[in-house]
Amino acid sequence: MIYISNEDVLAGYLKERGLLKDPSSCTIHYCQGGVSCTVAYVEIDGRPMIIKQALEQLKTKDTWLCDPNRMYIEYESNKIYHDLLPENAPETYFYDKENYIYGREAVPDGCQMWKDDLMKGLIDYKVAEKAVDTLAAVHNHCADREDIARMFENKDVFHALRISPYIDFTVTKHPEITEFAQRVSDEMMDSKITLIHGDYSPKNIMVTEDGMKVLDYEVTNYGHPAFDLAFLSNHFILKAVKFQDRPGEYLDLLDYTVKRYFKSLTCMDLKEFEPVYIRTLALLMLARIDGKSPVEYLTEEKGKQELVRRLSLTMIKDQMDTYSDTIKMLRNEIRRLTK
Hints:
It contains twelve helices and ten strands.
């Protein structure tokens, strides 16, 4: 097995695959920030591409192991997104099952991570529109598809990267919510409704001049669509807490996103979807404070961490199950507690 974290090794690997003739003719830059993969930006004769290799031990302080075969999951899911919405997902090039490596089209030069824009206070509803429409389109298109369900029926990676670090680990710090957390875990693990991205967040949405590209599909599974919407929604709430001089802007973005998704949803009944979404959201909020992967921009702000805990535990304790009640509570409590 090879490891592409070394430039010479990666260049030699690309030559062996026939992607370049002279290793010295390509440029390689390693992407920083991710914990689950080694990611390299490679340019060969003016053609940019991304080469990714899954890590078995993630780059985290605590032990965090995950099957590296998740790269195959990412490759196949990326293909589905690109086939359905080619303007919103990169093209895939190859998958190497022996070394857990896949190659894809690089996003265009000059694009920006949506997360970076949001952290700067740039609220772009056109990006939100494309993001939620893409998510809803994939959920609706892939529902009740036996071929896709078979391809993504194994949820080991989803459990290792989402259920274990986000739910199970959080329960060790909040044993009083064990029953609630088990219910959410069962709903996510047992449901087989449609294709779930599993990491649908502003970090994985790149804003281009004329649209956006969705990235990072390694947690994909055939499960419950509420997870993706809750995962995305959580980021807007966390930023509303982070930027207490303008929380309403992020909550307005949340409101727009959720209501647009609700109107687009056809893969299941909204009355069944909504309470699962709220329960999942409540738990994910708590997980980004007390789980194995706490959100990095709140780690030094104890008061804001405590605010997220209070919001989440209020949702859980009060058994909230409608979005209208939830957004009202979030607006009122964040406004009250940040004065």
